[in-house]
Amino acid sequence: MLNAILIFLALSLVFGLLLGYAAVKFKVEGDPLVDQIDAILPQTQCGQCGYPGCRPYAEAVAKGEAEVNQCIPGGEEVMLKIADLTGREPKEMTETPEHEGRIIAYIHEDQCIGCMLCIKECPVDAIIGTTKMMHTVIVDECTGCEKCVPVCPVDCIEMKPLDVTPQNWIWPDPKETLKPLHIDPSLEDTSVSAENATEKEDKAS
Fold it and tell me: Which of 38, 118, 122, 133 could form a disulfide with 58 if both were Cys (CB 3.0 to 4.6 A apart)?
């Protein structure tokens, strides 16, 4: 019995060493550009770009197989970052997000029939519930991909902008909030006329 245990331990050790060596020896290096593009994307995994997730879209962009303007949730900001990173020309967005800021799925729980179709469709497991019982959304996990909306047979899911609270409020970018000073031309003409009148009075005196 002891011999059998020792043999199994020895075999486990040998196979473990072989697997570890193979993992290092035959490691496939990823494209660092893909990682950088993927880090820019919003990670909604919504598929609106035409790819099954953010990572596949990043790989397609890095290979030149996809355009820089296909991420709808990311909008123009993400498009410009990807264009700058890849050295490609920015392109106008074909579609724009319907809401500004982050949106999340909201389930009208009094209408939910517990069919679990939305749970199966959610790519980030942000919906919890069980069969024939009320479902609800984990707000912190929801990415706003909207995949759960069309599969609901009773239309009890809607997308809503995330309520602003002291915990999630972000100080606005001054570049976006500050507007250039606009001077009324009529006021400018009045000031010029006043200066001319003052000069004439000085010369007359």
Answer: 38
Concatenating the DSSP letter of every residue in 136-159 gives EE-TTT-----THHHH-TT--EEE
Which residues 6+ apart lie within 8 Å of 96 measured at CB? 72, 75, 76
Largest CA distance in the chain: 123
- In the chain, the N- to C-terminal Cα span, in Å, equals 123
Rounded Cα–Cα distance for residues 88 and 67 (Å): 9
User: Which tokens sit at 2?
Assistant: 């002891």
CATH T-level topology, domain 103-161: Alpha-Beta Plaits (3.30.70)
Q: Which CATH class is domain 32-86?
A: mainly alpha
Residue range 130-156, pLDDT digits in tens = 999 999 999 888 888 888 999 999 999
